[in-house]
Amino acid sequence: MCLAMLSASLFSHHWHNPLAAFCQVGTHGSGLNYAFFMPNGTGLVEILAWNFHGKGCTWAGQYFSRRYEQDHTVESGYFRLVADKDHVFPGLYERRGVGSSYPRDADVEVFFPTLAETLRKIALGQAGFRRTDWTLPAGFNVETYSGDAGSAPNARSLALSGNSRLNGPVITYVSSMSFGGTLTDIYAMVDLSGRGEADYVQVIVSDLSSMPNGIAWNNGSLFIASLDPYKSCRLYRLDNVDTFALGKKAATLKDLVLIRDDLPIDRWHGWKFIRFGPDGNLYIPIGANCNICRLNGKPPNNGTLNGEFIYSGDNSQDPKRVTAPYKKCPTCPTYEFGSIYRMDKAGNNIKLVARGVRNTVGFDFHPDTKKLYFTDNGRDNWDLKNPAITDNRPDCELNYAPSEGLSFGFPYCHTGPAGNNIDARPYLRPPGVGANLVDPDENANQTVACNGPALSFKPAIQAMGPHTAPLGMRFYKWAPGANFPRAYDRSILVAQHGSWNRQRPIGARVMRITLDPSNPGKVQTYTPFLSGGVPGDKGAITGPNPQVQPREAYRGRPVDVEQLPDGSVLVSDDKSGMVYRVSYRAPTSCARSFPGGGGEGGDSLALTPTTIPGTGAGCKVNLGRGLFPHKFRRCVQAQVLSGRYMQLATSLAAVGGKLVLKGALVLPNYACLNSPRGWAGFGLPPEQGGGIDMVGGQAFITQPVTCQPGATSCTGATTAAYKLNGQAFSLFKPSSGFLASPSSLKACQAGGALVTVFEILLPYSFQLQAWKASKITSRPVRAPGDDDTPFSTVTFMMALGDVAGSTLQQHWLTAGLSIPFSLADIDAAVPPAVPVINKGAGTLVPPAKASPPPPPGPSCVLEGVAYQACQTTSDPGFPFSQFYSLNGSTLNVGIKATTSGWLAWSWNPGNLGGMIGGNALFARPCASGCSTGVSTPAFVLGGYATGLFTQPTSIVFSVLASGKSGSTIWAAFSLSWPAAGDNITINYGGGPYVGGSVDGADGMGQHGIQPPYQCISKAGGAITLPSSC
């Protein structure tokens, strides 16, 4: 089997290296399997597997990038496909015939899907974040926080910079961790404007250790607890950390200040969660270095017994073992295992806070009482002979420490659920706790009382389910303007990582806990907040539906939670390597009820715009993934239907001697305002100062599109501008004198809103006022019918309509609104720290190309030749027109663009919409040697470098005509329909051209925007351009 090239269009990045290695491998004792990988750290694809014996392959760790990880634990024992060095798509493989533990030389069957199936799953996004996997209370939404900005592989602890502000920058630090010994990083996710998604992800500290899990921000410094198992556990401080994040630079080891290097070094329960308390001290746990054992051994033995680490192999499971406190050196402090300590910022004045704590990986302090609350992970292997008993015993815990020095029961007593029915509703325990469970190994004779009036320990306050692994937790702090409802104030949000060895997975949620206001040690409610890490889990008492299968892979594994300045909440997930943002919008009825006489069949609604609160100095509009927000001077909103609003942000600017209104139409919660596929129109009526009459006006029409994998130019919406010569769409013509430039119109979806950004020329009256005030340099030319009344408001019209199939239906609502016009607003400055009015991420799935609303009638003509179908978009970065017709089996194509560089049309035989491997025809200016002023060479694209372009062998392009007029280049050509089916997927795009040989590829620069793709269908005997194939 041979693989020459893998299409980069499956991923959202550009790749510049071919596949570096492809080899055939076999498992120990099973059949042959295939693996392919990139070894240089910028790999396109890596398939990694344990216990492989390569044929012609080097499997040494240094041959892979440092993302390579061998994972021998059951909790993540599946095999992993890495799409690149920052994006992990786990769970694509199935492992069979392996028990809960196995020796390294055991026979392991590994079942790889076919290469085609693997790539199909990636293309469909089946291995990454899917919103539909997750369930939240009504009104809440979850989306990825960083998106195309990057990921944080193995994302663990979260720490918000105290310098973060509502309107940006918002800096969130993210730690990572590896069980396989791979060195991992600490990242910063930076949202520059507070729009609700990170603009970039920056490595802050690289290759510190394999387990730098604990991070905490304090007074400008980031504190890092870094474990290198069985070698060292150190506490560092990185000063002025925000300058590294904002400066996009990584710290070196010499930038770190070593605070302590004498912490216990055990792998299991040795990594740290750290947090600063309200007293200014740093709190740090020392987990029990065993599954279950007594902790009162003497003298200190540095976590070893008979020369072996307590938590190594069978030692950790032997209940007869007795571990002792850890003391690295004679002058070093002594640390008790199973405890929590605090120290000052310099690492001194170390005090024990709590003992009898098996392994806490999350704690926080009550905002009012300042008391400590912490999660604790319960023991495993309760009864090795009866897995059903072990599965539901004991519960993990939430604990409350009203004072220091208390014990919390480990290893003698454990938590049971309220109601004492241990095997009932393990997925959702009732609020509170029940009778404590007596440990069958360490307390079989009940020498330590676990129940009764006089206890030697403080029981937990909430049973959190067996083996759910509660980790990070936060008290939610509500304030006026916070994103969450006020009812969430003082709620505790706890991330449950999920079980690692329970027969049926459990946990993988974020739980919400409320306390009794009159009793801070009593839980009032215990409910799921974010559910779905376990397949089929919707937060029900009875658990997943359908019932989750034994050892079924998780869809996500929450680790930590963090509250952002706007009141939304981040959740880290080390399974996906992502951080999610959970936000709230009050639920609204989506029924169409029309106030007054407006709406369907009636007169237009008269909207009453008011300034959006907090935007007196201006606002920003979020344009979705990877795009910085636009700033605007005036920001208003108006209620369109009950509880549903439109927002309009505008600025006035002198551009090219003319007065331009720069604006953004934001339609929040668009699926409810109109419909998930409905269209929205917005523009200028034919006259200012009068009623709203659509006929004769000019407007843009925007509609959402479904983004399919593979076309990275899609933003989730498409838009085009028209002159409205009548009410029927067939009477709409391309706009004229409306847009300031051909690239003035863009649309996207961001945070559930449909957003259109536009630049339009205001009518004659406003141009005249601006010219008279010397705000613009070009005197406007008055056309017949122009009104020179000095209007003090600008009037707009808006319409909403449905889409049936691919046909836009007549509007069901029309509306008008007016905003003040002031000459003082022309070129008025907008401060940098103004609020973003539409927060949240953009399209979550790598997008697909979709056609704009169809232009009318006979406009599909190129240089006098009529075509059956055509469209014009600016997706390649400049206006690009395509024309198609079918004559028997011959496909006639025309392309035209306004550009000084090259343009191209390409068909990929893989039919995946990827340019690499495609057959392309180029058109570009030709100064000499070309009778038409345009050269039209054709190539097979063997790679991104032009030196890899070769002559086509499978397709013959017949150039019919070409030409150039000003900055417009066009070409017409034909080819035989290249595929067996009725559909093909093509790419189109362009880039810079500095000139070169007539027939060569020299002189062509790389495209600035990933070439979009388009589906062409000949079904029914005529060419159509559907949104996808």
Describe this structure in words.
With 1029 residues, the chain is mainly beta. 3% of the residues lie in helices and 37% in strands. The chain has a 7-stranded mixed beta sheet with strand order 38-52-51-45-46-47-48, with no helix packed on it. The radius of gyration is 32 Å and the shape is elongated. The two termini are 29 Å apart. Mean pLDDT is 81; it is low at 1-127, 596-602 and 844-858.
Question: Roughly how much helix do the residues carry, as a percent range?
Answer: under 10%
Give the CA-CA distance, first to last residue: 29 Å
The Cα radius of gyration reads 32 Å
Q: Major β-sheet, in short?
A: 7 strands, mixed
Q: What shape does the CA trace take?
A: elongated
Q: What is the strand arrangement across the widest sheet?
A: 38-52-51-45-46-47-48
Strand content: 35-45%
Low-confidence segments:
1-127, 596-602, 844-858
- Average pLDDT score: 81
Question: SS-based structural class?
Answer: mainly beta
Question: How many beta strands in the DSSP annotation?
Answer: 66
Task: Please tally the helical runs, counting DSSP H or I stretches of 4 or more residues.
Answer: 5
What's this, in brief?
The chain has 5 helices and 66 strands.
